[in-house]
């Protein structure tokens, strides 16, 4: 969708005179791209009309904006604004509060009787729990899917992997009872985010909706989230309306945005139910969850970049543990950052997700981490962690000089036996350990020289 929209808009740059005919051709291309991605037909024709009316009015006004030089911008902006308003219902989604048991219920429908994989509810529940846990909430998951065999096992496995508390039952067959028990238990244990995962299948669709109503009554969710698969297509409108009536959801998450699906159906769901999208699922990993906001989303769709997303990732790092980050900034400034501290920074980055998104902001990370794919980058970072894992406490807390053999005047002349021990212990090579120490030293020197003043950690402190 992005490529086609982008192509349509940039074709504007090739024409010298922008008249109504050009406008109509462009709108036709934009609409074709939207329809092809399964955006609802009615919405597309509305968009076309709105842009046309808006642009024509300015053209005819004869004012400054109607000058030939400004016409292209005018059209691009009108299309941009209309696309944004398609995915922006202007409603603020619920925001979990600290120190309060926020109950979040996930709902969604899997076409009856099919053997297709689910739309990603269970995966998304775990991703959400991880997301909130990273932000300091005590998070948990309740598995209220008793329809699918193995549902609780799946929750148990993914929650364990994510180190999130979970609740479910192998014997209880009433999803309402399980949901109520789980939420009551986690409330008592002072959990701040309690996510209720429900079934997406039933013998009869109407029974599924009834079940959602009952679970809703039992757990009184603060927010109900409709989970939609990006490939949902034109049935999105009817399905989301049906859910809106039974389980009045206040937010939408669109999963599998990384796949071939075009996501247009999800746009229709937003428009049909006036409910905001809050996250996009972008992969099978637990960190593949991107915050959604309308403008950057459309901006990315049109190939205009996403600065806001980058800032959010930085903020995430800072808010996870502000005190610790401040301490790090101070150490950096004073040139006292130990290998242990540095490892923590690397781990922070790894926890945040795709490396290419953020690594360039982290001081001292070797540039070659940014080359190649995210997987390769992640692997290189993991090897760095393995190496530091084989260091002793004393070594980790040091500034790396213990690995150096020094001459009497203090000049380093070689490596000590410690290096080969670490290489053996971590299953890496002496060369890799040497490289890591060298990178650490470069980082420490760089930080000392810059006094940390204009560095990344300083920038983070300003965000607070
Ligand atoms: P449920 O039946 O609705 O609970 O769906 P599941 O959470 O079990 O997910 C079904 C399948 O979709 C699993 O194989 C997941 O790994 C996969 N999946 C879920 N979310 C995403 C996503 O955002 N991207 C990709 N590529 N796969 C996903
Ligand atoms: Mg499931």
From TrEMBL:
Record remark on domains: The NG domain, also named G domain, is a special guanosine triphosphatase (GTPase) domain, which binds GTP and forms a guanosine 5'-triphosphate (GTP)-dependent complex with a homologous NG domain in the SRP receptor subunit srp101. The two NG domains undergo cooperative rearrangements upon their assembly, which culminate in the reciprocal activation of the GTPase activity of one another. SRP receptor compaction upon binding with cargo-loaded SRP and GTPase rearrangement drive SRP-mediated cotranslational protein translocation into the ER. The M domain binds the 7SL RNA and the signal sequence of presecretory proteins.
Protein name: Signal recognition particle 54 kDa protein
Organism: Multifurca ochricompacta
Signal peptide: none
Reactions this protein catalyses: GTP + H2O = GDP + phosphate + H(+)
Family: Belongs to the GTP-binding SRP family. SRP54 subfamily.
Task of the protein: Signal-recognition-particle (SRP) assembly has a crucial role in targeting secretory proteins to the rough endoplasmic reticulum (ER) membrane. SRP is required for the cotranslational protein translocation for ER import and preferentially recognizes strongly hydrophobic signal sequences. It is involved in targeting the nascent chain-ribosome (RNC) complex to the ER and is proposed to participate in the arrest of nascent chain elongation during membrane targeting. SRP54 binds to the signal sequence of presecretory protein when they emerge from the ribosomes.
Record-annotated SRP54-type proteins GTP-binding domain positions: 276-289
């Amino acid at each position: 969708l992005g490529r086609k929209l982008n192509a349509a808009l940039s074709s504007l740059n090739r024409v010298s005179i922008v008249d109504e005919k050009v406008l109509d051709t462009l709108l036709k291309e934009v609409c074709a791209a939207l329809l092809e991605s399964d955006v609802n037909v009615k919405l597309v024709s509305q968009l076309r009309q709105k842009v046309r009316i808006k642009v024509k009015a300015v053209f005819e006004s004869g004012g400054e904006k109607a000058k030939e030089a400004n016409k292209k911008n005018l059209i691009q902006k009108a299309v941009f604004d209309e696309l944004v308003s398609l995915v922006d219902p202007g409603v603020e989604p619920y925001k979990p509060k600290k120190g309060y048991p926020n109950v979040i219920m996930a709902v969604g429908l899997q076409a009856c009787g099919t053997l297709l994989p689910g739309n990603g509810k269970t995966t998304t529940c775990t991703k959400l729990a991880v997301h909130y846990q990273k932000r300091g909430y005590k998070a948990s998951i309740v598995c209220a899917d008793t329809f699918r065999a193995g549902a609780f096992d799946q929750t148990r496995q993914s929650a364990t992997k994510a180190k999130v508390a979970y609740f479910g039952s192998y014997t209880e067959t009433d999803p309402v009872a399980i949901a109520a028990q789980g939420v009551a238990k986690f409330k008592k244990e002072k959990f701040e985010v309690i996510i209720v995962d429900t079934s997406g299948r039933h013998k009869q669709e109407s029974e599924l909706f009834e079940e959602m109503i009952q679970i809703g009554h039992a757990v009184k969710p603060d927010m109900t989230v409709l989970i939609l698969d990006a490939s949902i297509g034109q049935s999105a409108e009817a399905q989301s309306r049906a859910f809106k009536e039974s389980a009045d959801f206040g937010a939408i998450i669109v999963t599998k945005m990384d796949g071939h699906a075009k996501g247009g159906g999800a746009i229709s769901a937003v428009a049909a139910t006036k409910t905001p999208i809050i996250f996009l699922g972008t992969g099978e990993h637990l960190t593949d969850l991107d915050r959604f906001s309308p403008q950057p989303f459309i901006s990315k769709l049109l190939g205009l970049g996403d600065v806001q997303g980058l800032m959010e990732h930085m903020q995430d790092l800072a808010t996870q543990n502000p005190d610790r980050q401040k301490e790090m900034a101070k150490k950096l400034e004073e040139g006292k950052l130990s290998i242990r501290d540095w490892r923590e920074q690397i781990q922070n980055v790894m926890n945040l997700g795709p490396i290419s998104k953020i690594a360039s902001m982290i001081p001292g990370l070797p540039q070659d981490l940014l080359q190649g794919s995210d997987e390769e980058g992640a692997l290189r970072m993991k090897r760095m962690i393995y190496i530091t894992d084989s260091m002793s406490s004393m070594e980790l807390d040091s500034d790396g000089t213990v690995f150096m053999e020094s001459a009497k005047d203090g000049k380093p002349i070689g490596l000590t036996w410690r290096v080969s021990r670490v290489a053996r212990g971590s299953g890496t090579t002496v060369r890799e350990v040497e490289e890591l120490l060298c990178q650490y030293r470069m980082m420490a020197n760089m930080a000392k020289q810059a006094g940390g003043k204009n560095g990344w950690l300083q920038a983070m402190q300003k965000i607070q």
